[in-house]
From TrEMBL:
<keyword id="KW-0805">Transcription regulation</keyword>
<dbReference type="GO" id="GO:0003700">
    <property type="term" value="F:DNA-binding transcription factor activity"/>
</dbReference>
<dbReference type="InterPro" id="IPR009057">
    <property type="entry name" value="Homeodomain-like_sf"/>
</dbReference>
<dbReference type="Pfam" id="PF17754">
    <property type="entry name" value="TetR_C_14"/>
</dbReference>
<protein>
    <submittedName>
        <fullName>TetR family transcriptional regulator</fullName>
    </submittedName>
</protein>
<keyword id="KW-0804">Transcription</keyword>
<dbReference type="Pfam" id="PF00440">
    <property type="entry name" value="TetR_N"/>
</dbReference>
<dbReference type="InterPro" id="IPR001647">
    <property type="entry name" value="HTH_TetR"/>
</dbReference>
<dbReference type="InterPro" id="IPR041347">
    <property type="entry name" value="MftR_C"/>
</dbReference>
<dbReference type="GO" id="GO:0000976">
    <property type="term" value="F:transcription cis-regulatory region binding"/>
</dbReference>
<dbReference type="InterPro" id="IPR050109">
    <property type="entry name" value="HTH-type_TetR-like_transc_reg"/>
</dbReference>
<feature type="domain" description="HTH tetR-type">
    <location>
        <begin position="27"/>
        <end position="87"/>
    </location>
</feature>
<keyword id="KW-0238">DNA-binding</keyword>
<feature type="region of interest" description="Disordered">
    <location>
        <begin position="1"/>
        <end position="28"/>
    </location>
</feature>
<feature type="DNA-binding region" description="H-T-H motif">
    <location>
        <begin position="50"/>
        <end position="69"/>
    </location>
</feature>
Length: 210
């Protein structure tokens, strides 16, 4: 009698290639949807732009849109910055103090963004502050950011990410970072975002001198 097929084997090279191609195609589709959505928002206004119009511009169906973005608000707030920041924190030298590590990580992560990425981020930030529905989703998304940063800080410090010390630390960092982003939007990007965030965390690192 023949043996049953194995189900615990490692994927072969061809399967890795197929998975990689699928992931790249999904990433490209996600970028296209977001780019077309932001273009239409700029041309027609957020409220006047429908999911159907975004889908048509991206050459997909509305159902495909919702597979990538659960709501129209999500097409504004979703990005890859949280994993970028977490990875930058974990790359910092182990002997660097937690706040110094976070400050260096934020500086390096935001400095890596291309000018067109920063321009898109600025427009998305403007929408997040000016459109009530997007503002609500942005506030909800902050909890995800806090959780990710807490995991990274806890891993570097060998602490529990849910401990009051870690959560308070991350809350203080976010409290310093948000006004910097607000200033960036108010100035229409005149001052570089990495400089504003670095200055804000620098005040925190110095004990908030006034």
């Amino acid at each position: 009698m023949s043996s049953p097929p194995r189900t615990d084997r490692n994927p072969g090279p061809s399967e890795h290639v197929a998975t990689s191609l699928r992931e790249r195609k999904k990433a490209k589709t996600r970028r296209t949807i977001q780019e077309q959505a932001l273009r239409l928002f700029a041309e027609r206004g957020y409220e006047a732009t429908t999911v159907e119009q975004i889908a048509e511009a991206a050459e997909i169906s509305p159902s495909t849109f919702f597979r990538y973005f659960p709501t129209k608000e999500d097409v504004v707030i979703q990005d890859d910055y949280d994993p970028l920041l977490v990875a930058a924190i974990l790359r910092q030298p182990a002997d660097l103090a937690p706040l110094s590590a976070v400050r260096a990580a934020f500086r390096s992560a935001f400095s890596e963004l291309a000018p067109e990425e920063l321009a898109q981020a600025l427009y998305r930030a403007k929408l997040s502050l000016s459109v009530p529905a997007v503002r609500v989703r942005t506030a909800e998304g902050l909890f995800t950011t806090i959780d990710g940063l807490a995991q990274a800080v806890a891993e570097r410090s060998d602490r529990d990410p849910d401990s009051p010390a870690v959560r308070t630390f991350v809350g203080a960092v976010m409290g310093a970072m948000l006004p910097a982003i607000f200033s960036w939007v108010e100035q229409d990007g005149a001052e570089p975002l990495p400089d504003l965030i670095d200055e804000a965390i620098g005040y925190l690192e110095a004990g908030l001198p006034i």
